[in-house]
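Entries read chain and fold; for instance:
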Amino acid sequence: MGIKYPPAWINQHPVVPGWPVDILNTRTGIYTGSYGQVFQQESDTGIVTSAKDLEDSNQETVQLSASPNGGVILAGCNGWVFSLKPGDLQERWKTRLPCDRGGITTVFYTLRGIYAAVWGHLYRLDMADGRVEANNDLSGLGHGEVRLALTADLECLAVGIRGTALCLDPTTLDTKWKQPLRRWDVVSVVGGQDFIYAGTNGYIYALRQQDGKETARNDLPQLGSYEARMALDDERPILYAGLKGYALAMHTSDLEYIYRVQLPFRSDDLTTVLDGIKVAYFSNNGQVFELDDMGSILSSVDLRSYDSQAASLSAHNLEGEYTLAVGLAGRSFGFDLGRSFEPLDQMGRGFSRAWMPDITNMTAWRHYNPALVSGTSLLQGIESETGKLVAMTLKSRQSHYLETDGSVYVWTVAPHSGVVVRLLDEGTRWRRWSPEAVEKEAVKGYCAGMMRVTDRGFKLLFRENEAERRCVELAEWAWPLAFGVMAEGELVS
């Protein structure tokens, strides 16, 4: 892959020169927010197709968030939250947060709800109209910037504020636990499987989701007391962190280094990080770097002629074309990363795929790690030339076609996850994989079922009951909708 220079496009936005830009790369386009404004741009050309002045924003910094399908765009600015429609950026609703304060306004879209925070106050908002459904004033923690994340099981809203990490109930916003860390600086948080990772003041912590107990810590020796930005690898147990011009990768279990790399021409300023496909991206001092598993720099781009800030980074895979959007000092840039990672089948033949699901943490499947089970594959997409389904065996990392002789596969999908499939063992009955069985085993948020694959396509198989219809609805966003997979199939008993 690699970051290819020059950029495919550059866009100078009508904002104060040097003003921070937040950027989102989604399936409905690229969105940039800066100086009280939001812009929608075409992914391939960067052309601005819509612009929105955020009323009452006072031309402040804009924070963005979006739904997984790009159908809802959220903007937070100066104590206001705006829900915008893709395409024309018209307001669905806007809400003034009740604390009636300005400043950096965090917005966070999740399947558990919409969250917003400003001046040390946190709110859960109704998706339909933006009204406040719950709040937590984070008492005793002051009025700093609030950062948010959600754990893999969707049961803990992780909060970072002024040297403290918290776990809140995602629905009520009641505090489950509070863990003081170090001093009173900004705290970055990411949510993993059974753990929250927090970074502040030159330290990285692993905190047990159950009770907040510290299970591991990396003091980042010789790197000083700087802000750490973090990202979790979507497929592997790796935590990435960037600070002070260094790129770091750590094992999630013990936070021991995998690599620690000083970026060329680094500065002591902010270092941003983004998880990619088999790589990680870091930005510091007006530069963007792509690093492999061992910390080797595969490619880089120097934007210091524009500014020396750390860039906002966002990548998206649209119909097999992987692009990196970069926001820097009032500008946005688009970089062509080439075709997404192309696994090979046993004959060494590559597959051209029409789509690829987002994968955050397949090991979050509570029954077992599917990568350890023979015959379990990750559904990757549809080969454009033949229309056949392609899946990658998780143990061997080799790609293959799904059998099209009427074979029945079991499938499972979790929110923010990919689709895992396995050929149905002969003699295995429906009840083992029914939604009722999944619910009975308390795998909250997960769903499973069966599908039949033929040379004419495939169908989901389900019974006529509410639980199984909910299961299909949950799976809907993760499947290639244009392929018509939501057609009802016959029951396999």
